């Protein structure tokens, strides 16, 4: 069986960490009987260098022809990166938003897991996180403020900027269904986060989510205001199973949740469309300050590859094996610098990749 | 000297905690030579009970005639409160938003302070908060998504909701000036938080803030994306002095910051207009579950009264004295239930008020 995987190495540490994920995919393929062929795709800084824009239509077409896309990281150092010569609105952010829209990647899954072995890095007190936590943020990714009309113009002589936030019931329904489906495979709880005491879009959100919930009688639904959710993630992250929310709230809350785990270098993410196609990437950034040094943590990207095998490529066993190998490597005491602690063995990017391969 | 103070007791624990703040104001008046006269104003549930709406024009007019307004808390138990019979968009949220707009309270100050005596309640590990932290959020309160046009209507047969986010340069400038002015009296650092990689309003925000910064060469300005700020508040709250941000981001971040302190019952807030007038209220909610039991923590409201004396009423010495009295009460080991810890003396709402009065 041959799987065609688009690869966006990206900027900063992107190329290094993606290389390790490909190594792990190849090893899993050997063991579980599939073959990966990789197609390199350019996005962000790498695309600007070659094409002058962060994303070309050709790249979009090529991505669509793949079974799934694995991505390193996009973005970079404000001072040295090529795209900072571009207008803000034409920067790789734009490439990222465009690819999300063009590939219709409306469902962004961001797990936030506290690994028992890594609780030393967690900023929260042990009494709060005892036993660990494991939540999944389901962020709507192709609507809301990110894709609304916007403009900046003079109104009565005063410069005025407008952004707009729109959601329709279809957009809300499809992401809600995804969240409930995932919850059914987890602890059967959905916390839908909105600002229904202020926003019309949140009131519609709440209404549609309640309709969808009727088809999932086993799942407990609760509504939470976004300001409260920002508090609860710090106060008691264990209370959450699946958090369902719109694009901008999801951006803020998923980053907060990832920091609450204390180990962003461990967190995968998936962006899915209506089919099985998805784009997979680590939650962390491109870390230009440590790029090229061979010290970046590849685990988030490797776990993203595991998500890809599970959600897009029908290779659940290989996905399980990769996740188990990552757990085993942690139990065996190997750490990259970002998650290093006393008594552990510090390893670089490539060695971490090898250690995980050995355990598959 | 006579000061005319509007009092909105509000819902839930509001009446209890405001009573203690009035007691403390009266004591401070005796010592520092001013006289408070109080005018009761109705907002939220209390106003719905009497007038059927959460805020009348008469209340607005009365509030404007006061030197400042002190408020308990608005909101309540979804099941029992009178306003839950109202349409969502007509609920007390609406009263709160309307009074902010009518009184032009564009500058919302929310301090987040970790008291050394209360670090047991802080959810963050001690190594992160050693030495405590003290940051001030300056949230824009009368613009953005909260006050944009909104509507819900069928578009091509699909129910669609719109909200809009608008800021003009004047709105941004006046709040930025407030933030820099406050920073000058503090540690001279402003972190302006936006989402300039996506929103036009954030790009204008950043531009205007940079212009304002030129008039404050002593103040260090940094820009931070909102998702990153949500992470940094958990990772290292000590890095912040003044956080300047727009309305919705400020709502989320100020609640997160208040939870990071671990003691919301201690946090005051002020909402100011162009003049010295302001509305002062605790950061926490109306806590309907403990209303009427005499156990709520009145300190946030008492500290709000201190902020009122400082910002609106030119009584800095009295404000200092109240803040010192609160610190002393904590040092002396008195605690309400929400901040109780081993070896301390647990007291109720009224006794806490008395203890603070004794120390003025
Ligand atoms: C780079 C930025 C536009 C992007 C977003 O806000 O979606 C990033 O923060 C993310 O969460 O993937
Ligand atoms: C009640 C609600 C409308 C309000 C807000 O969002 O501003 C509250 O959360 C606050 O922060 O004062």
Automatic annotation (TrEMBL), chains A, B:
Pfam families: Iso_dh. It is found in: Cytoplasm. Its cofactor is Mn(2+); Mg(2+). InterPro entries: IsoCit/isopropylmalate_DH_CS, IsoPropMal-DH-like_dom, Isopropylmalate_DH. It comes from Coprococcus comes. NAD(+) binds at residues 285-297. The gene is leuB. Its EC number is 1.1.1.85. The record marks 146, 195 as: Important for catalysis. GO terms for biological process: L-leucine biosynthetic process. GO terms for cellular component: cytosol. This is 3-isopropylmalate dehydrogenase.
């Amino acid at each position: 069986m041959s799987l065609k995987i688009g690869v966006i190495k990206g900027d900063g540490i992107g190329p290094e960490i993606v290389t390790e994920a490909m190594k792990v995919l190849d090893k899993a393929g050997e063991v579980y009987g599939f073959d990966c062929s990789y197609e390199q795709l350019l996005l962000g800084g790498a695309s600007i260098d070659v094409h002058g824009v962060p994303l070309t239509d050709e790249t979009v077409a090529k991505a669509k022809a793949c079974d799934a896309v694995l991505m390193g990281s996009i973005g970079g150092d404000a001072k040295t990166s090529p795209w900072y010569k571009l207008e803000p609105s034409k920067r790789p952010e734009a490439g990222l938003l465009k690819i999300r829209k063009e590939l219709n990647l409306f469902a962004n899954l961001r797990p936030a897991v506290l690994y028992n072995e890594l609780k030393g890095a967690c900023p929260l007190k042990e009494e709060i996180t005892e036993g660990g936590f494991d939540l999944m943020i389901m962020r709507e990714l192709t609507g809301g403020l990110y894709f609304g009309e916007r403009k900046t113009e003079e109104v009565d002589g005063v410069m005025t900027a407008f952004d707009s936030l729109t959601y329709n019931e279809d957009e809300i329904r499809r992401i809600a269904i995804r969240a409930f489906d995932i919850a059914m495979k987890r602890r059967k709880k959905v916390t839908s986060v909105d600002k229904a005491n202020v926003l019309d879009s949140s009131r519609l959100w709440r209404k549609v989510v309640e309709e969808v919930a009727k088809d999932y009688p086993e799942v407990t639904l609760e509504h939470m205001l976004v300001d409260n959710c920002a508090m609860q993630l710090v106060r008691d992250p264990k209370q959450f199973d699946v958090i369902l929310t719109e694009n901008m709230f999801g951006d803020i809350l998923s980053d907060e949740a990832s920091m609450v785990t204390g180990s962003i270098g461990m967190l995968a993410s998936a962006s899915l469309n209506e089919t099985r196609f998805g784009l997979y990437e680590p939650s962390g950034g491109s870390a230009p300050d440590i790029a090229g040094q061979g010290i970046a943590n590849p685990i988030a990207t490797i776990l993203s590859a595991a998500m890809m095998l599970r959600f897009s490529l029908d290779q659940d066993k290989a996905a399980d094996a990769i996740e188990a190998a990552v757990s085993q490597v942690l139990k065996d005491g190997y750490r990259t610098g970002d998650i290093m602690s006393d008594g552990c063995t510090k390893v670089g990017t490539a060695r971490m990749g090898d250690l995980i391969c050995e355990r598959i």
